[in-house]
Write a structure and sequence with these properties.
Strand order of the largest sheet: 1-2-3-4
Number of domains: 1
Largest sheet: 4 strands, antiparallel
CATH architecture: 2-Layer Sandwich
Helix content: 25-40%
CATH class: Alpha Beta
Shape: elongated
Strand content: over 45%
C-alpha cells in the first residue's frame, strides 16, 4: 500500500511539474542595463530596456545622455512590434 501511495504521489507531482513548466516559460521577459562614464572631456549615461511579453509583443528603448565642453545631447531610440 505504501509503495503504491508513493508511486501515486510521484505521478501527481510529475504531472504538475510537466504542466506547470510551460506556464513559467510563457512569462514576460525583461532586460535592463545602465552604463555611465565620466572623464575630463565630459560624461555620458546610457539606459537600455527591452521587454518580450507572452502575447508576442516586444519593446526596446535606449536613451543616451552626453555632456561635454561643447554642450549636451540626448539620443533616444525606441522600437515596438505586436
Amino acid at each position: 500500500m505504501a509503495h503504491s501511495r508513493r508511486m501515486m504521489t510521484t505521478a501527481v507531482l510529475a504531472l504538475g511539474f510537466a504542466l506547470g513548466t510551460p506556464a513559467l516559460a510563457a512569462a514576460d521577459s525583461f532586460f535592463h542595463s545602465e552604463d555611465s562614464w565620466a572623464g575630463p572631456e565630459g560624461a555620458s549615461h546610457t539606459v537600455t530596456r527591452s521587454v518580450a511579453r507572452d502575447d508576442g509583443s516586444v519593446y526596446f528603448v535606449t536613451v543616451t545622455i552626453t555632456a561635454g565642453p561643447d554642450g549636451a545631447t540626448v539620443s533616444h531610440v525606441r522600437s515596438a512590434a505586436r
